[in-house]
Design a protein that fits this description.
The protein is α/β, with parallel strands linked by helices. It folds into two domains: 230 residues, Alpha-Beta Barrel (TIM Barrel); 29 residues. Helices cover 43% and strands 14% of the residues. The protein has an eight-stranded parallel β-barrel, surrounded by seven helices. It is globular, with a radius of gyration of 20 Å.
Length: 265
């Protein structure tokens, strides 16, 4: 059965935790979809883990459409949500509509994600009103990394926590179908989850959210680079691939590959 935004809402109602992972390409998406991951996020994190940038800020709409196409093309069950990149929705509501429309129409996404609270509420409300499901994102918002002075935990002070809670309520009232809470204190995430009607998806926000999301490169050890402290590594694929590549190089050099049987095939 195809997962929809209504499916995600029903999971919250049943108290069923929502597992989400990022996806950026055809082969990984196929594996994740077949494994039963209900929500796949084509994150602008691809700028860092796929394209090699230091932040998500250089990611363009064309980048996001390109990768969303690859993910949507193979997905049979999961809900595909695509990130709206930096400056694709912050300038005005018209830009937000146009760019979200590209991710839906050209990219094949079922929903879009926007970072920020009350400053983006008008854009979120407009998208929802024309039939584009929106996921919110509060706390550590990577597109604001320079203003936040780096990738660090947010809303630790009481006034910041109160502001975030108000932002969450505003997004809920605007009609978003879910809200990502990134790198905020556990108790604040619990308060937001209690206060809003829609599912909360945590990343570095503790166990009280309605679901969790991880970057697949962190979860599967696809890189030996820095991994955030809240991530859990479920495999070490970087080591497996490196070892396999070394074996291949050695066999080519020694003449063991291709083997006689392979040469005769």
């Amino acid at each position: 059965m195809k997962i929809t935004v209504d499916t995600i809402a029903a999971m919250k109602s049943r108290g069923e935790k929502i597992a989400a992972l990022t996806a950026y390409d055809f082969p990984m998406t196929k594996l994740l979809d077949e494994a039963g991951v209900p929500l796949l996020l084509v994150g602008d994190s691809l700028g860092m883990v796929v394209l090699g940038h230091e932040t998500t800020i250089p990611v363009t709409m064309d980048d996001m459409v390109h990768h969303t196409k690859a993910v949507a093309r193979v997905t049979r069950r999961a809900l595909v949500v695509a990130d709206m990149p930096f400056l694709s929705y912050q300038v005005n509501v018209s830009d937000a509509v146009r760019n979200a429309g590209r991710l839906i129409q050209e990219g094949g996404a079922a929903a879009v994600k926007m970072e920020g609270g009350r400053p983006v509420v008008d854009a979120a409300r407009r998208l929802v009103s024309i039939g584009i499901p929106v996921m919110g994102h509060l706390g550590l918002t990577p597109q604001s990394v320079h203003q936040l002075s780096g990738f660090r935990k947010q809303a630790k002070a009481s006034e910041d926590a109160a502001r975030l809670l108000e932002d969450a309520v505003s997004l809920d009232e605007a009609g978003v179908f879910a809200i990502v809470l990134e790198s905020i204190p556990d108790d604040l995430a619990a308060s937001v989850t209690e206060r809003v009607s829609v599912p909360t998806i945590g990343i570095g926000a503790g166990p009280h959210c309605d679901g969790q999301v991880l970057v697949c490169h962190d979860a599967f050890g696809l890189s030996d680079e820095y991994s955030p402290p809240f991530a859990r590594r479920y495999a070490n694929l970087a080591e497996i691939v490196s070892s396999a590549a070394r074996s291949y190089v050695e066999e080519v050099r020694s003449g063991a590959f291709p083997s006689r049987e392979q040469r005769l095939a």
